[in-house]
Amino acid sequence: MSGLRVLKPGPQSLLQDGGRHGWQHLGVSPSGPLDLHAAAWANRLLDNPWGTPLLEIALGYLELQGELDTWLALTGAQVAATLDGAPLPPWSRFPLRAGQRLKLGYARSGQRAYLAVAGGFRVPPQLGSVSSQLREGLGGLRGTGEPLRAGDLLSCLAAQLPRAQSVPWPYQPDYRAAARLRVIGGGDAASCAPEQLQAFFAQTWQLSPQSDRMGARLLGEPLLAPTRQWSQGVGRGAIQLPPDGQPIILQADHQTMGGYPILGWLHPLDLARLAQCPPHHELHFSPVDIGEAQAELRKFYRFFGR
Amino acid sequence: MRFEPAGAEALLLVLAEQPDAQLPLRIALLAERMRAELGPLLRDLVPGWTSLLLHYDLTRIDHRKLIERLSPLLPRWLAEPLPAESGRRHQIPIWYAGADLAEVARLCRLSIEQVIELHSASEYRVGAIGFAPGFAYLGELPERLALARRSTPRTRVPAGSLAIAERQTAVYPQASPGGWHLLGLCPWRLFDVRREPPCPLLLGDRVRFVAVDEQTFRAEGGPL
Question: Where's the Carboxyltransferase domain (chain B) (predicted)?
Fold first, then answer.
């Protein structure tokens, strides 16, 4: 099979799809794109269904060469993309001919770019998904969860689309703006002292450089954690409070069970915004009603055909 | 018993405040009933020590409708008798040559032989699966072997390591960081996506460990 040849892999470029669902009872993390919004747009620009395998490119620096004629779409972080040296518009789809080189520079705004191909990358799934999970050794090109390497061939089919298209600009987020993240209450918040919850919502947090695909770690005035719970299932967006008082927000590669008290859950659509914040970015939290969050999320899923 | 929304797309059913020996079996049975009842409305279902987390498909249902649907069924499911001989039985070979064996013996004021004998004499139950793919928490470890976790976790515990912490024991299916005390090595792959199911140990299963020598360990496929 033909496809795209990886010339430079970048620091961490991962195959992702809709995620590995249905295996959490065996301890398998669902994984998937950190920024569902940018990933969904990349696939939609190419008329790909929700969850079609694409690349999540951390910080940019990826270089690919086409070995066939197809169409690509690039969304997410602003990475100064060029095709044979000619700049590409952001959040757009564009044709790639055999022999042409796509080059991504450094992410100037945002942390993760998403590159989709018409029809998706063709990779055998593991437990129903190609999503790369390095910690668990699942998914990706080799079935080991590892990121792309130079020389890899990303298999895909030749494709022809009518014309270039871009995401309407109001839907292209400004990742440099302050991140205001909404929180659905619940969990152990009730057993937290009220002034601790106030302190969580009142202060400006920073995103710790220790953050990864498993969890976004916050830095700030430590909170007093209520007592540890019996380990229970945990989900994406859960805001855990470990004994050191610095909250951790679970992201796509989260563990399936956890015992730390939970302050609430990030609005699922705001996880996309969080995924694009660089280390030390300022984060503010505010409460949101669960019904409101669900209505918005349903609308998002309906629009993108999940 | 209570339901609590767990974010926009999950619902937590808390069954008890404290775990007990029968609870994993009850939770395994409930999980089975819920899967049959809800089918594709559920995306994932995660049993905890005292709870069940239902990751539902928000495009088809929400927490309110889910509670409405499950509430009338729960009393019947909770009243179902648990089969006395439930849980499949497993005998897992272990070469008791773990890095912490001597230290565990010293801390428990036992000889190494006594540690091995105590650990392999008990039948354990799978109480939960999590932390990593196929990582089965087994209980209950004899009181005399109960130790707090290591103060500094190891950055890498080898795949197949048999370990203990507090009243629990487990085999690490993959190499990973870990804070438990290492007693030995298992030659079997306890999580393998090429098998169906990928994890041979399921919630409520019964496990015994059988001490084997290095030669048998290698013949059985070790080290992983």
Answer: 1-201
Q: Domain A179-304: give its CATH code.
A: 2.40.100.10
- What is the distance between the alpha carbons of residues B175 and A139, in angstroms, rounded to a whole number? 17
Task: Confirm whether the ipTM is greater than 0.85.
Answer: yes
Tell me the whole-structure pTM to 2 decimals.
0.94
What pLDDT, on the 0 to 100 scale, is given for residue B21?
79
Contact A21 B43 (CB under 8 A): yes
Is B114 within 8 Å of B101 (Cβ atoms)? Answer: no
Taking the Cβ of residue B191 and every Cβ of chain A, the question of whether any pair is shorter than 8 Å is answered with yes
Q: What residue ranges define each of the domains in chain B, with the CATH number in brackets?
A: 2-79 (3.30.1360.40), 89-219 (2.40.100.10)
pLDDT at residue A99 above 90? Answer: yes
- Which residue in the set A25, A136, A143 is minimally distant from B46, CB to CB? A25
Q: Between A and B, how many residue pairs show a Cβ–Cβ distance under 8 A?
A: 135
Is there a contact between A28 and B18 if contact means CB atoms under 8 Å apart?
no
Query: Do residues B24 and B127 make contact, with C-beta atoms less than 8 angstroms apart?
Result: yes
Nearest to A56, CA basis, from A132, A118, A1: A132
**A129 CB within 8 Å of a chain B CB:** no
User: Nearest Cβ partner of A231 from B48, B62, B133?
Assistant: B48
Q: What is the pLDDT of residues A42-85, one digit of tens each?
A: 999 999 999 999 999 999 999 999 999 999 999 999 999 999 99
A22/B contact by beta carbon, under 8 A: yes
Task: Measure CA of the first residue to CA of the last residue in chain B; give whole Å.
Answer: 42
Q: What is the pLDDT of residue B151?
A: 79
> Span B25-51, mean pLDDT?
95
Pick from A126, A137, A290: CB nearest B8: A290
Using omega within 30 degrees of 0 as the cis cutoff, is the peptide bond preceding B197 cis?
yes
pLDDT, tens digit, for every residue of B183-198?
999 999 999 999 988 9
Note whether B18 contacts A: Cβ–Cβ < 8 A: yes
A262 contacts on B by Cβ (under 8 Å): 6
> Domain boundaries in chain A?
3-171, 179-304
| pLDDT per position as a tens digit, A195-225 | 999 999 999 999 999 999 999 999 999 999 8
